[in-house]
């Protein structure tokens, strides 16, 4: 059975390591902040000027003026700091982000990513994605395995405008966890109840499959 958004966020949170500085993109990536393992300490950075973002607020700690880059209300942890966009992007471009997680429309088997524009649709702009994929030390993509038409989003060549080249390290979809290697896509895990055959069928690039592929543990 394909994972829902919450399960994708939970699986991504498992890739966070103690001491990481992390930037989470809009949507499912931001949800991962709610599932950070309790035995590690990480610092969440937002492009609009917050270092030390916490989980989504409850009605008891809700502050309408405290938002992330996606205009979602968030919380700030003790010791958090606020700054302008110039300082925020200096942190990104200076290589201080250990991990960034973002969504995508297409990813290739060499790690190219298209994440900001579908021709003919309304475009909000590329935002900070281009800076993040160019400068972050590790990039993980969170997305559905296919688009709304059922077409593969893991491809040999991107057909949409590129965000970055050869930068993605891992993809977590509703069907699988896939690593980008120097030999192409490598299947690491599959969603519970999802077969390897289904994942291969819905991936438009060769998949390296070695041995028995375990199910994800959420």
Could you please describe the fold and organization of this structure?
The chain has helices at 5-13, 28-31, 85-93, 129-135, 196-201; strands at 21-24, 43-46, 50-53, 76-82, 99-102, 106-108, 113-114, 139-142, 154-155, 170-172, 176-181, 184-190, 207-208. It has a 10-stranded mixed beta sheet with strand order 4-3-2-1-5-8-10-11-12-13, with helices on both faces. The protein has a 3-stranded mixed beta sheet with strand order 7-6-9, with no helix packed on it. It has 5 helices and 13 strands. The chain has a single domain (5-208), classed as Glutaconate Coenzyme A-transferase, CATH 3.40.1080.10. It is globular, with a radius of gyration of 17 Å. Helix content is 16%, strand content 24%. With 218 residues, the protein is of the alpha/beta class. The chain starts with a helix and ends in a 10-residue tail after the last strand.
Feature tags:
three-stranded mixed beta sheet, ten-stranded mixed beta sheet, Glutaconate Coenzyme A-transferase, globular, 13 strands, 218 residues, alpha/beta
